[in-house]
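Readers of this paper often ask what the protein records in our data store actually look like. This encoding replaces a full spatial description with a residue-level series of whole-number codes. For reference, a complete record is included directly beneath this paragraph.
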Amino acid sequence: DVQLQAFGGGLVQAGGSLRLSCATSGFPFDDYAIGWYRQAPGKERERVSCVNSDGTTYSIDSVKGRFTISVDNAKSTVYLQMNSLKPEDTAIYYCNALLVGSLNEYWGQGTLVTVSS
């Protein structure tokens, strides 16, 4: 039973911080790349940040220096620390697990982040 449970979203003022968590189970966590995606109203889903199975990380330019992805392998959990939040960060955030080089992919349910001006 594969599970990815995202939580930690909420309402925050611009400049504030939130920490998202994605607790996973039911698949070989260490073999997958884990990422955070978001979908804002009226926009396509986009990848925000990810960590590969070798520990390397990637973030899109718009969040570099503000968001940090990290993992706790013992807990099979991935985090997204979001600082200096902007209204344009408002979106539903989803966690994703991808077996690199394959079509095996799992999605969490999403958690809503709302950043007010």
